Amino acid sequence: EAGVTQFPSHSVIEKGQTVTLRCDPISGHDNLYWYRRVMGKEIKFLLHFVKESKQDESGMPNNRFLAERTGGTYSTLKVQPAELEDSGVYFCASSHLPPGIGELFFGEGSRLTVL
Amino acid sequence: AQTVTQSQPEMSVQEAETVTLSCTYDTSESNYYLFWYKQPPSRQMILVIRQEAYKQQNATENRFSVNFQKAAKSFSLKISDSQLGDTAMYFCAFIMDSNYQLIWGAGTKLIIKP
pLDDT value at position B56? Predict the structure, then answer.
């Protein structure tokens, strides 16, 4: 069975440009999460989908970030326009059960570098 | 505020040695779950071990065990008979019963030397 896949693995863009990150969760996992790790800092929660609905987006840093999960399958995270402080690794994870009970499965992350 | 502190940014030990990674956390909640995740170089994050806060018994998974001290809010990871494949970033995290957000530490880079 395929794991969580993320694309692209690495993106280098200039400040002001737009980038879209994609996450394909494990098939059948209703819960999908986005996390971000800025260099050397803690990993921070961004948002949580249950199927196609945003359950919790309290971690989204500002309105330059837009996440969608069309049809409850894959998810995209768009950053527009990108700023220098957006650089980091963006992790996607999925789970069948709530994370305290069931295991979270992570993708390898998408590294974003904003110049 | 909920926080996790990993005081060791980097550690290195010889293969076959035992190593302990420290983690302290802060929460006012009584029900939560604690985790250690590892991320090998260029690989995805995987769960090493988990602990329910209401359980007093320390979790173990083969060579990995934890020392959970709830009153002290401490959750250290012990790796016995370390192997080269244990080289990775190790993250301590917890999640409260009341929401779905994992709270993470900054990570400890562990290097196992041959």
Answer: 86
pLDDT in tens, A63-105: 999 999 988 899 999 999 999 999 999 999 999 988 777 789 9
pLDDT at residue B21 in the model:
98
Residue A85 CB coordination number (10 Å): 10
Return the SS3 of A14: coil
What residues of B are in the A interface, CB distance below 8 Å?
Answer: 4, 32-33, 37, 42-47, 52, 91, 93, 95, 97, 99-107
pLDDT tens string A22-69: 999 999 999 999 999 998 789 999 999 999 999 999 999 999 999 999
Which residue type, as a one-letter code, is found at position B87? T
- Which residues in chain A are contacts of B42 at CB distance < 8 A? 108
Please indicate if any CB of chain B lies within 8 Å of the CB of A56: yes
**Which of the residues B32, B99, B108, B109 would you substitute to probe the A interface, choosing the one with the greatest number of A C-beta atoms within 10 Å?**
B99
The token pair that represents A29 in the structure block: 């996992």
Closest residue to B100, CB basis, from A40, A48, A109 = A48
**Cα separation, B58 vs B50, whole angstroms:** 10
Q: Count CB neighbours of B18 within 10 A.
A: 11
The span from the CA of B53 to the CA of B34, in Å, is 7
CA distance B14 to A104: 31
Query: Residue A28: exposed, middle, or buried by beta-carbon count in 10 A (0-12, 13-18, 19+)?
Result: exposed
